[in-house]
């Protein structure tokens, strides 16, 4: 039988060169420079590791091949490869062969770097790659072998870092991931449970993305794994908020596990955007979570986020009615909360185009004081719905008699003024619909015809009037009536066409009529849509802007001509 790997090395080199060999072969030391020549794994060894043939491995050992020292271009040893492919029987033979080498050579424990502890170029130990691949039998055997190593033995990692074998479970690769992180990323629950039981500390170690295994398990909604991890006697909640992860998974069981009295400090945690737990739950529409949080900690309804929004605003911004109602039921006075712009919940809903929220607030008489309330810029909810071009919200608001359509903001604009000021010269269809919704209810304008420079810098009340005259309202109502008349005429033609169809084979008459009527209706709709765009407010907007330009700009234009 030929000599083993380390025996050959010892015979060929003096004791003074052992430190150099530590990096080249099994004696890995991160404190010295890497050798210029690297013994890449020969083909036969690579095939044995990937195929898991034990007989071929024994033949290589008998031939004195350096099965323990050679690596792949990614720094993987034969133990890495057997772990990646799940060949746990081969893995056992490799470790037993390495132990025989130990017995024959008897190296200094602190100098020897076992294959169990050798990282590849990504910083992964064999335990990491086995966990990532989800090979539970290989992981179980690696755990057993690692537990048998001397606790004080050093693990030499990249960049000169060293840890003791007792801390191997919290060793992180180049991406900051432990073996438990990798198992969770690949959704290998059985492997994750094994690793979480070995060392409770590993469940709270954050990676480079600031995600701990506990956070990842909560985000995945894994109740069993979260419950196992929380058994830790000394939990350290570092990295991303595990409470937000539980909210994200919308799992009430995990949320209940985190809301026990000993973990009450978690309720004050924030996510990456600095949002509170309740704000986040309200923003994603997790109604059950909102109710549960308010049962335990109703005061968090009054916690403001850095963007100035309270949880009730977050619910309105996303249009989540269940969350809104849950907050109002638990804390009814939150309806009075204003954000940094001085906006109430109706402002927020109107600005974000949430129809159902607007209807809900208008339906409740006790919220009537919100309807014409102004923000710091003097804008009412109608102003905001207009400026953000939500024609349906404008329609809902203007048909409510309590809405003052002539209310002016601090620039002296009514909603119609704001629409015409913000509208493009070639308005979009939404802009046209919004403008027409305002005109059809007789929304007044509040601006005099004044020089443009006066318009830019008016005095306290200069240039602003409350006009009750609507000279153009009748004109636009006539246009709407014309549209309706045309719609009726075209629809009538479409119907009459259905009753005067040409003769077709028996059995096909019904579907032919359906086809003709459908074509008629679609033709009507297309015609009216095109015509409505053609008579839109672009001309009116241009005229209004020319009127505001005043004589000075008119004279300047004549001089330029």
From TrEMBL:
ANK repeats lie at residues 341-373. Residues 542-561 have a biased composition (Basic and acidic residues). It comes from the Eukaryota. PROSITE patterns: ANK_REPEAT. Pfam families: Ank_2. Residues 541-561 are annotated as: Disordered. The keyword Transmembrane helix applies. The chain crosses the membrane at residues 480-499, 511-535. Keywords: ANK repeat, Membrane, Repeat, Transmembrane, Transmembrane helix. This is Uncharacterized protein. It comes from Brassica campestris (Field mustard).
């Amino acid at each position: 039988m030929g000599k083993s790997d380390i025996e050959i090395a010892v015979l060929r080199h003096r004791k003074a060169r052992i430190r150099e060999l530590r990096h080249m072969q099994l004696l890995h030391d991160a404190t010295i420079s890497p050798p210029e020549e690297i013994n890449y794994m020969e083909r036969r060894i690579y095939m044995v590791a990937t195929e898991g043939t034990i007989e071929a491995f024994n033949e290589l050992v008998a031939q004195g091949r350096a099965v323990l020292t050679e690596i792949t271009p990614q720094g993987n040893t034969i133990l890495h490869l057997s772990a990646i492919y799940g060949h746990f029987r081969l893995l056992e033979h490799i470790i037993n062969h390495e132990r025989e080498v130990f017995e024959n050579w008897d190296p200094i424990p602190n100098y020897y770097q076992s294959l169990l502890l050798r990282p590849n170029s990504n910083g992964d130990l064999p335990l990491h790659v086995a966990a990532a691949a989800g090979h539970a039998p290989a992981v179980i055997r690696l755990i057993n072998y690692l537990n048998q190593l001397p606790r004080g033995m050093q693990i030499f990692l990249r960049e000169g870092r060293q840890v003791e074998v007792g801390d191997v479970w919290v060793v992180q690769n180049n991406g900051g991931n432990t073996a438990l992180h990798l198992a969770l990323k690949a959704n290998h629950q059985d492997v994750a449970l094994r690793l979480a039981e070995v060392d409770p500390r590993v469940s709270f170690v954050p990676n480079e993305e600031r995600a701990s295994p506990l956070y990842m398990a909560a985000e995945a909604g894994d109740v069993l794994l979260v419950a196992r991890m929380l058994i830790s006697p000394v939990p350290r909640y570092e990295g991303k908020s595990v409470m937000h992860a539980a909210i994200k998974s919308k799992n009430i069981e995990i949320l209940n596990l985190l809301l026990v009295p000993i973990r009450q400090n978690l309720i004050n945690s924030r996510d990456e955007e600095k949002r509170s737990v309740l704000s986040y739950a309200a923003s994603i529409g997790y109604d059950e979570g909102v109710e549960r949080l308010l049962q335990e900690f109703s005061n968090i309804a009054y916690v403001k986020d850095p963007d100035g929004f309270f949880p009730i605003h977050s619910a309105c911004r996303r249009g989540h009615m269940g969350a809104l109602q849950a907050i109002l039921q638990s804390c009814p006075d939150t309806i009075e909360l204003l954000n940094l712009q001085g906006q109430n919940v109706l402002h927020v809903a109107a600005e974000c185009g949430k129809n159902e929220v607007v209807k809900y607030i208008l339906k409740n008489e006790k919220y009537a004081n919100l309807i014409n309330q102004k923000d710091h810029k003097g804008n009412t909810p109608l102003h905001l719905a207009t400026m953000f071009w939500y024609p349906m919200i404008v329609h809902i608001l203007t048909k409510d008699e309590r809405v003052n359509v002539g209310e002016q903001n601090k620039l002296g604009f009514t909603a119609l003024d704001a629409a015409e000021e913000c509208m493009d010269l070639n308005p979009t269809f939404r802009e046209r619909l919004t403008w027409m919704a305002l005109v059809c209810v007789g929304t007044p304008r509040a601006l005099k015809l004044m020089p443009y420079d006066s318009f830019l810098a008016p005095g306290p009340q200069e240039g602003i009037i409350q006009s009750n005259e609507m000279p153009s309202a009748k004109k636009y109502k006539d246009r709407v009536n014309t549209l309706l008349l045309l719609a009726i005429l075209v629809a009538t033609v479409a119907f009459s066409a259905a009753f005067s169809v040409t003769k077709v084979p028996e059995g096909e008459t019904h579907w032919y009529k359906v086809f003709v009527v459908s074509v008629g209706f679609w033709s009507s709709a297309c015609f009216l849509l095109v015509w409505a765009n053609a008579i839109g407010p672009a001309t009116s907007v241009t005229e209004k802007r020319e009127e505001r330009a005043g004589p000075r700009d008119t004279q300047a234009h004549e001089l330029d001509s």
